[in-house]
Amino acid sequence: MRIIQLIDSLDAGGAERMAVNFANAISEKITFSGIVSTRKEGVLKQEIKQIKNYAFLGRKNKFDINAIFLASKYIKKNKIKIVHAHSSSYFFGVLIKIFNPKIQLIWHDHYGNRAKDNKQKWILKFCSFFFSKIFTVNDELRVWSLQHLNCKNVFFLPNFSDLKKTEERTILKGEAKKRIVCLANLKNPKNHSTLINGFITSEIYKQNWTLHLIGKDFKDTYSDNLKTIIKENGLENSIFIYNACQDIKYVLSQATIGVLASTYEGFPVTLLEYAQSKLTVLSTNVGFCSSLVTHNSNGLLFDPTNSEELSNHFIYLSNNPEICANFAIQFQKIVENNYSKEAIINKYLNLIN
User: Fold this and answer.
1) In whole angstroms, what is the distance from residue 78 CA to residue 33 CA?
2) Which domains are seen in the chain, by residue range?
3) What is the spatial distance between Cα 50 and Cα 67, in angstroms, rounded to a whole number?
4) What element of type H or E holds 231?
5) Domain Glycosyl transferase family spans what residues (predicted)?
6) For position 133, what pLDDT does the model report?
7) What's the pLDDT score for residue 353?
8) d(CA 159, CA 335)
9) pLDDT of 215-229, one tens digit each?
10) What is the pLDDT of residue 42?
11) CB neighbourhood size of 347 (10 A)
12) Rounded CA separation 90/114 (Å)
């Protein structure tokens, strides 16, 4: 098989990370595994295993003829048979297929709010005529695609974590065994304000607990609001913003609790990375999160609109280190048994065949 992953950027987002994960994981199992970024490069470029099979198109607009020409040239040169388009890259994938009708176009939907977001659904519905298969990151999205799109080969394909050791650069502030980390870019729907307010209300910072926000800082109103909340509460030495980090495995190794507070999610790779790093998980209950985390068994779940509930969970975990440690062990077992890289890749290759 000769497959490329198509993605619009290589910024550190969930869909982007999975595009790189798939390209890397299948590189030793098939004849050719490549990855093409259409619009923007980013920090994840450094994680691509077969960099010689990577291409950047520099797309300037939706109908960029030069980008289409470069993609077609890449496809012909490398005899690509399957284009696996992630998230919003489906539109450019359709343009590629129009110019290269023999390829199979697979769309991978990572967007957890698809059913509620009416933006440009008619474009997606039209484009779905060109899809040979659709992969979704949870069953709700699978059902939605079957009901609303023009492709009936729709399959739920779970995400997997593939953290690699990199140069250890980022040193988390605060006291060891009392660090809480949130791995999410600073933007909606990641809901950092509720997270920060829950942490503040819990007052566990008085016991030297610290909160660490790891993710791209867009230096916008969303980010400014978070910094204002931190400053107004005098917690500059308890809540820290680090921007995007490349040494995620090392960052997570320094934490005890991993939290995710999003108001919607598909299948968050972040939770799998917390499991791989043996963290106790405190998670929003949206999307596939409640299928991954069993409340009060291998972690804790909360309503992302309820900062008081989150605050109570912070207090509970900080006061019960043994329960906290047991949650981490149980969650790691669940993820290893059900969402290992090997199992997901085997399923992926079987579905494509």
Assistant:
1) 10
2) 2-157 (3.40.50.2000), 179-338 (3.40.50.2000)
3) 21
4) helix 221-232
5) 167-328
6) 98
7) 86
8) 11
9) 999 999 999 999 999
10) 94
11) 15
12) 14
CA 216 to CA 14: how far, in whole Å? Answer: 12
> What's the CA gap between 68 and 297, in Å, rounded?
50
Specify the pairing of strand 82-86 against strand 104-109.
parallel
- Please tell me whether residue 104 adopts helix, strand or coil conformation: strand
- Of 257, 305, 312, the C-alpha closest to 285 is 305
Q: What length does the chain have?
A: 353
Question: Residues 186-244: pLDDT tens digits?
Answer: 999 999 999 999 999 999 999 999 999 999 999 999 999 999 999 999 999 999 999 99
Helix 307-319 with 192-202: angle, nearest 10 deg: 50
Whether the per-residue pLDDT at 118 is higher than 80: the answer is no
Distance CA 159, CA 21 (A): 9
pLDDT tens for each residue of 7-42: 999 999 999 999 999 999 999 999 999 999 999 999
Residue bearing tokens 């919003």: 88
Per residue in 320-338, pLDDT (tens digit) is 999 999 999 999 999 999 9
**214 has which bridge partners?**
183, 243
Identify the three-state secondary structure at position 90. Answer: helix
DSSP 50-88: -GGGEEE----STT-HHHHHHHHHHHHHTT--EEEEEGG
Distance of alpha carbon 84 from the chain centroid? 17
For residues 21 and 162, the answer to whether their CB atoms sit within 8 Å is yes
Q: Do 44 and 161 meet the contact criterion of CB atoms below 8 Å apart?
A: no
Neighbouring C-beta atoms of residue 171, cutoff 10 Å: 10
Helix (H/G/I), strand (E/B), else coil: 4? strand
Higher model confidence: residue 216 or residue 165?
216
